[in-house]
Amino acid sequence: MRILAVSGSLRRDSYNRALLSALPKLAPAGMAFDHFTDLGAVPPYDQDLEVDPPPAVVRWRAAVAAHKGIVLATPEYSRGLPGVVKNALDWASRPVQAPPLSGKAVLVLVATSGRALGYRSLGDAQSLLTGMRNIVVPAPEVVINSAETALVPDGDGWRLADPMAEAFVAIQLGLLADIVESGMAQLLEERFRARSAEVTALLTRAANGR
Ligand SMILES: Cc1cc2nc3c(=O)[nH]c(=O)nc-3n(C[C@H](O)[C@H](O)[C@H](O)COP(=O)(O)O)c2cc1C
After folding, report:
1. What would the pLDDT profile of 117-140 be if each residue is shown by its tens digit?
2. In total, how many domains does the chain have?
3. What's the start-to-end Cα distance of the chain, in Å?
4. Ligand 1 mean position to 1 CA, how many Å?
5. Mean of the pLDDT values across residues 144-153?
6. How far apart are CA 7 and CA 62, in angstroms?
7. For residue 96, how many other CB atoms are within 10 A of its CB?
8. pLDDT per residue over 12-22, tens digit each?
9. What is the spatial distance between Cα 191 and Cα 196, in angstroms, rounded to a whole number?
10. Where are the alpha helices (DSSP H) in 93-183?
11. pLDDT at 116
12. Does the model's pTM come out above 0.90?
């Protein structure tokens, strides 16, 4: 099972990037991660570019489309989801007939240097991704506070210092695998499209007086 791993921070020494490097050791057997590292190249959303999207957008959409499961590790900026992430979600929510970022299983993690912060970024991401018809792993929610001490070097990467935090992440990754394996996120999207078609046909018939 290949999961798309995305850091919502573009910073080289990002704690969120470090958190992503801690995941393989906590993941269930058979789960592996493909990292999308080109979010910084995705330009501001412009509907005029939909006809012929910039190459970075094509790459981003293709990476999302090629995976049934996604892990987003993101900071909180100014008490909310970073603009870079929101922008990428906007691009992946189109074209409206077949958005790449629908029908996915998504795990959102937040790492922050804040002490009791990060929950608004998590909430923003959960709300946006659910509204885009994805299934977001609901619990146990993971916000890593004081990331500068919560993450410690481990070989080539990083690990979480707190075993309880590790356990929560391991549970979340297990649930992510369960959602992907069950196909429930894809089923939700299929049912959405089928029901939308039914209702549209019904309304069209009503409008035509038949
Ligand atoms: C523009 C900006 C706004 C920030 N706002 C918040 C915030 O609202 N809440 C928070 O917990 N941390 C905030 N921070 C601190 C980040 O948690 C910290 O910079 C963190 O290291 C960012 O994640 P990264 O290490 O993955 O880049 C902010 C940082 C920046 C640069």
Report:
1. 999 999 999 999 999 999 999 988
2. 1
3. 48
4. 31
5. 97
6. 17
7. 8
8. 999 999 999 99
9. 8
10. 119-131, 147-150, 163-182
11. 87
12. yes
Task: Write the CATH number for 186.
Answer: 3.40.50.360
- Which atom number of ligand 1 is nearest to the Cα of residue 117? 11
CA separation for the pair 174, 28 (Å, rounded): 6
Which residues form the domain of 142? 2-207
Mutate to test the pocket of ligand 1, among 113, 124, 151 (most ligand atoms within 8 A of CB): 113
The answer to whether the CB of 7 falls within 8 A of the CB of 14 is: yes
57 Cα to the center of ligand 1, angstroms: 25
Closest CA to 49 of 94, 89, 98: 94
| Atom of ligand 1 minimally distant from the CA of 17 | 26
pLDDT band at residue 61 using 50, 70 and 90 as cut-offs: very high
pLDDT tens sequence across 79-115: 999 999 999 999 999 999 899 999 999 999 999 999 8
Q: Which residues line ligand 1 (CB under 6 A)?
A: 9, 11, 14-16, 75-79, 111-114, 117-118
Q: How many whole angstroms from 183 Cα to the centroid of ligand 1?
A: 34
- The pLDDT score that the predictor gives to residue 143 is 96
